[in-house]
Specification:
Layout: H1 2-14, H2 19-30, E1 35-38, H3 45-55, E2 60-64, H4 72-75, E3 76-81, E4 86-91, E5 98-102, H5 109-112, H6 114-121, E6 123-126, E7 129-132, E8 138-143, H7 156-159, E9 164-167, H8 173-186, H9 199-210, H10 216-230, E10 243-245, H11 249-265, H12 273-284, E11 289-290, H13 292-296, H14 301-311
Parallel strand pairs: 1-8, 1-9, 2-5, 5-8
Antiparallel strand pairs: 3-4, 6-7, 10-11
Helix pairs in contact: 1-2, 1-3, 2-11, 9-11, 10-11, 10-12, 11-12, 12-14
Length: about 325
């Protein structure tokens, strides 16, 4: 636990006012999953993933998604070498431990789909040849909720590949004052790189997370939450016309893993119903589709999930 706690302390010193984002990044890392971050520009999304790669013995690849991006810009390509009359595979940015997919919805589906195999199987296929990616592999993709012109909505299949979808907002005035002070104090100073977390420490932490106890009643509560997105009328009449499509089985697995990781970060060896509720929004937000009626009434996904949690009986 101590190496993870040291990493958390370092991240919170490097990125002020985004405790939720940092916690979500750590949970994604502990659960070996991927993270979709939605928020306005300039709220330290890029700084956060860079600080994470600095704090771990890992490499970082950044891709700025644009409409003219090609799949080979992510995966790499076979390049013909005239001097030896052979093709050589030149690796793309996916061959790093951490990938920052900046404004992922700026590129069309054929580019977004280049990530599907990488995220699901940690491998890519180019010209019929399969190439393995790093064992420690995390994609953090960002979306800008403000601008919709020139964007391409991510498919449901791709969204489901993300372990979590978290929302970040603006810092408080108190936090922003600290940020300005920090920038003044750091002017002209080369930042020091912390003692890096070793891959073996991360693997050990993941093993500890898997051992966090979940009672059968808590597990049943978790499953009822997911089931209520599919068959809402069985739990409460208020849910009957909220969800067009419910969350997949992958949501149940994600909620189980992340609730354990959340409890682990709270220095507990057991999962409580509060841990499940704490992770429900980020696990379900991108895995549900609201009905047309709910959308016309102005009900947001967050509001729908809040209604669901209040309707499903606790343990």
């Amino acid at each position: 636990m101590q190496p993870i706690q040291n990493l958390s302390n370092y991240l919170n010193c490097e990125v002020l006012g985004q405790e939720k984002l940092i916690n979500t990044m750590l949970i994604s890392l502990l659960c070996d999953g991927h993270l979709l971050v939605e928020g306005p520009p300039g709220v330290a999304k890029t700084r956060a993933i860079k600080a994470l790669s600095d704090g771990i013995e890992a490499s970082l690849g950044r891709v700025q998604f644009t409409p003219d991006l090609l799949p080979s810009d992510l995966t790499g390509a076979q390049i013909y070498k005239a001097q030896n009359s052979e093709f050589e595979f030149i690796k793309g940015p996916l061959f790093n431990n951490f990938i920052l997919a900046d404004e992922i919805n700026r590129s069309p589906a054929k580019v977004q789909s280049a990530l599907l195999e990488a995220m699901a199987e940690k491998q890519i296929t180019v010209s019929g040849q399969t190439h393995k990616l790093e064992q420690m592999f995390l994609v953090m993709a960002t979306q800008n909720p403000i601008e919709q012109e020139g964007t391409y909505e991510l498919s449901e299949a791709q969204l489901d590949r993300f372990l979590l979808h978290t929302e970040v907002g603006y810092p408080s005035i108190k936090t922003e004052t600290k940020i300005l002070q920090l920038l003044r104090d750091e002017a002209g100073i080369t930042p020091s790189i912390p003692k890096q977390l070793k891959p073996k420490d991360l693997l050990a932490a993941r093993a500890e997370v898997a051992k966090v106890h979940m009672d059968e009643q808590v597990e049943l509560y978790l499953l009822n939450i997911v089931q209520a997105t599919r068959f809402g009328e069985k739990y409460d009449k208020k849910l009957a016309d909220l969800f067009e499509y419910g969350a997949s089985t992958r949501a149940s697995i994600a909620l189980d893993k992340t609730a354990r990781a959340y409890a682990y970060l709270q220095n507990r060896d057991f999962v409580s119903p509060d841990d499940v509720r704490a992770m429900a929004f980020d696990v379900l937000r991108h895995r549900i589709i609201l009905t047309f009626d709910a959308q016309t009434r102005g009900i947001s996904k967050n509001a729908a999930i809040a209604t669901l949690l209040s309707s499903v009986g606790s343990v």
